[in-house]
Every structure is written in structure tokens, then in C-alpha cells.
Amino acid sequence: MSSLLHLRLPPASVLASLCLLGLGAVYGQQVGTEMPEIHPILTTQQCSAPGVCTARQSSVTLDSNWRPLHSVSSPTSCFNCNSWDSTLCPDPATCASNCGLDGVDYAGSYGITSNGSSLALQFVTGCNVGSRVFLMSSSSQYQIFTLLNQEFTFTVDMSHLECGVNAGLYLLEMDADGGRAKFPTNKAGANYGTGYCDAQCGQDAKFTNGIANVLDWTPSPTDPVSGTGLFGSCCNSIDVWQGNMHSAAYSAHPCSVAGQTQCSGAQCDNSLCDADGCDFNPWRMGNTSFLGPGKVVDTTIPLTVVTQFITNTNTATGTLTEIRRLYVQNGKVIQNANVNLPGIPASLNSITDNFCAAQKTAVGDPDRFEALGGLATMSAALKKGMVLALSIRDDYTNDLLWLDGNFPPTALPTAPGVSRGPCSASSGNPEVIEDSQANDFVVFSNIKWGPIGSTFS
After folding, report:
1. pLDDT score of 271 more than 70
2. 84, 102, 142, 241: which is deepest, by most CB within 10 A?
3. Burial of 86 per CB tally in 10 Å (0-12, 13-18, 19+)
């Protein structure tokens, strides 16, 4: 569930005061109207064989949905609290012409810091909640990953992530330039984090296809600085990692469209893409002793996550048939959890078409994964190339229970697939955890990719 994320403010008296004073865009004032965009540097490694890896000076850029958005001729905000300024943004094209994205203070305003090969993302920094960044290959291009018959490895420290807060690392079929070439009204491009899409087809992005999402904009009844418009942005996506100290999952989400595609209205509601996807969460699959504090994979200390994209010919020209998961911790390679759920053979401990079909039947979910082409569809996206996103967030829609609690919360907890983690039904309330868990953070490090077996030992 790599859903669209947004900048949020504390939900109580602070927010009310800011809105009443017309200061809902205080985050824009924090960085000014002409803040230079300086991407945090992040060292990554591309490997060619075991122990043979070349360091790359990569960088990250903040998703445009978090950035200050103001008049190009003044500091006046185009978006206040959860509503558009009607003068600057009377229609999509005029808004795109009137409003500009700005550079940001990554550490001071967003709690995003890098050090060598490590990237730390803070949950709450001042008035800002959560963040999402994309890996860059240059100042104007996202890094594109073509991972058929390849593996992707990273280390994650989730020891300061409690229930309700999610660290995500995912691959998205975005345009390398953020859509700048396709949409002339998009002047910012990848440098300013534009062009987001995923299989949720979320309608909360402020811009899609280079124009503002002002038509039919409805402020969220629960999220104080968000809302939804007429348009969403869809594309194939792979959640390589969604997790906190208590639960984790990886998943694949195929779509009927190729590349970033704008949807409209009801079309965005699970019509073009498999929003649920096919997921492997050890706890949900009945293995509750595998991952968590002090367990086989101990989340109180850093762990290395290896994801292998196996093809039918074991070559980069083959078709994806398996997304395999391994862990490395304390010098030991740990195979993925065995399934312990009636109806799913224990031997199916990775994402394959057979596993996904068996899982959907066992938990009683509709099989949109197979209907949209399953791993063959994901194969085409991986061959074309995908962009890497890293994020930290909470969840105003479902309190993150789809990851770490019982979901749906109204279902019988003992029903197959309902229990996804040990967290309580009230553990992920954003209005609570944005205060009580403000200091939560995640550290991603040692990002590597290359042929199968080349990125770990």
C-alpha cells in the first residue's frame, strides 16, 4: 500500500491558530520564496559480481507534494491548510502558471539527513509530518532501476518505529524526468520531485500531468492539510518494504496501463490498478514468531533486506516469475518466513503467481492481481525501468492497521489474513501518535543492486 503521502500539521490547536491567522502555508515561509534546491548526497553501490561493487554519488529529492507552493511573483501560498487559493488557482492551467515549487531545507524543515550511505527520515519535524524522497542519478533525472534477474539490497534500522508509523521503500513506474518532457507546463521536473504515481491512483496529489488538481477538490474530513481532486496518478508499483518494529510486508501491484497515467473520478477507484496487490507479510501468513523485537529477524537492530527478481530464463531478457526475499543479520543469511496458513503450501514463501492465487483464495480476497496480468505485468515495468522512493508516514485512512494490526478492523481477528501484526486497533491514530511518537525515525543505508548473489554475502 504505497499510497500518496502529504505534508501534515499537528491536528489540534496549533493548526487551528495557523488557519485562522491565514498562516496555513507557514512551511513555505520557513524556507522563503527563493530557497535554492540542494539535494542531500547519498552514496549507493552498483555491483557486477560478489564483492565487486562501484560506489555512486547519488542524491535524493523531496516529493513535490510536500514542497512549498506559492505565487511565482510573491510569497503568497497557492494552497492553505487543505484548500486552494481561488484567486491564484481558479482553474488547473491558470494555477500551474501562477504557482511554483520551491527548494527546501531538508534537515531543518523535514528531518531528512544523509551521511555517506545512510539516509535518516524523521517522523515529525516542527510542523511537518512524514516525507517521501526519490533517488536521483543527476540533478534532473531519477535513478532508473531495471531489475530483471537482478537483486536489490538495503539495510534498515526500524528500532525507533512503533505501531502506526511506516517506513517504506518502493519502486514506481514514473518518468525519469518527472514528466517534464511529456507535460510542457511542468517546469520543475524531477529536480523538484514531480511525477509521482502508484497503484493506489490516489487523488490527493496537488498536480498531475503538469496541471493543478483543483477541479472537484474536496478537503479531507480527517486529514487537516489534505484533500482529493478529480484526478489521480496511476502506475505499476512494487513495495519492496513497508514496515515498523512490529510487522513488515513486501508486495506487487500491477496495472492495466503502462507508465504514469492520469485517472479521473471513479476510474481511480481500483479500476486501472490492483491497489491491494499481492503481499507477503510473515505475520499475516501465520508466522508470528519470524519478524519483530527479539525474533528470528530482530527489528531492534539493523537488518539487511535482499529482494531478488527471478526470471524464467535466469537472464535479464526473461520474464519475471518470482520476487524472492532474504534477510541478513549478524552475519547470517535468513530465508524468508514459511507460510502457516490453511490453503497455502508452506513451500510458497515468495511472491509468485501460484502463491498469489493461493493467498487470495485462502484469505477470501478478489484476485485483481491475476486479472491484471500478475508477475508478467510487473516484468514489463521492471524491464522498462522504475524509480526508487523512500518514505516515512502515518495513515489517516486506516491507522496503518493493514500493516501492523487487524484489518479490516470489523472482521473476525481469527479469520485467515485479517491479523497482520500485534498492534492494537487504536495504536495508529495519527492525532495521537504525531504527538506521542513525534521522535520516531528510520534509517535506510547501504543501497546496492546488481546480478543475483552480488550484493550480499
Report:
1. yes
2. 142
3. exposed
- Grid coordinates given for 428: 495508529
Euclidean distance between CA atoms 32 and 281, whole angstroms: 43
Q: Residue 172 in contact with residue 387, Cβ under 8 Å?
A: yes
Name the CA radius of gyration of the chain, rounded.
21
Q: How far apart are CA 231 and CA 234, in angstroms?
A: 10
The C-alpha atoms of residue 124 and residue 26 are separated, in whole angstroms, by 15
Phi-psi category of residue 300: left, alpha or beta, with phi > 0 → left and psi -120 to 50 → alpha: alpha
Q: Give the integer Cα–Cα distance in Å for 293 and 243.
A: 13
Half-sphere exposure of 362 (CA within 13 A, CB side): 22
Instruction: Give 175 or 33, the one with higher predicted confidence.
Output: 175
Give the distance, in angstroms, between the CA of residue 263 and the centroid of all CA atoms in the same chain: 19
Tracing cell 550484493 back to the chain, one arrives at 455
**Domain spans of the chain, in order of start:** 13-451
Q: Which amino acid is at 426?
A: S
Handedness of CA 138, 141, 142, 146 (dihedral sign): negative
Sign of CA dihedral 105, 5, 267, 88: negative
State how far the Cα of 189 lies from the Cα of 21, in Å rounded to an integer.
Answer: 32
The distance of Cα 102 from the centroid of its chain, to the nearest Å, equals 22
Of 160, 82, 135, nearest to 391 by C-alpha is: 135
Residue spans of alpha helices (H) in 21-75: 26-31
Cα–Cα distance, 67 to 148 (Å, whole number) = 33
Q: Check residue 33 and give its pLDDT.
A: 54
Q: Residue 23 has what pLDDT?
A: 35
Q: Are 88 and 95 in contact (CB under 8 A)?
A: yes
- 343 φψ region: left (φ > 0), alpha (ψ -120 to 50), beta (else): left
Name the strand (E) or helix (H) holding 47.
strand 41-49
Distance CA 357, CA 354 (A): 5
How many other CB atoms are there within 10 angstroms of residue 329's CB atom?
A: 17
Query: Which segments of 339-457 are extended strands (E)?
Result: 386-393, 441-451
Type of residue at 282? P
DSSP line for 223-259: -TT-EE-SEEEE--EEEEEEE-SS-EEEEEE-BSS-S
Determine the CATH number of domain 13-451. 2.70.100.10
Whether pTM exceeds 0.90: yes
Cell 527489528 locates to 299
Cα-based angle 8, 422, 297 (whole degrees, multiple of 5): 95
End-to-end Cα spacing for the chain: 30
What does the DSSP 8-state code read for residue 19? H
Q: Which residues pair with 62 in a beta bridge?
A: 133
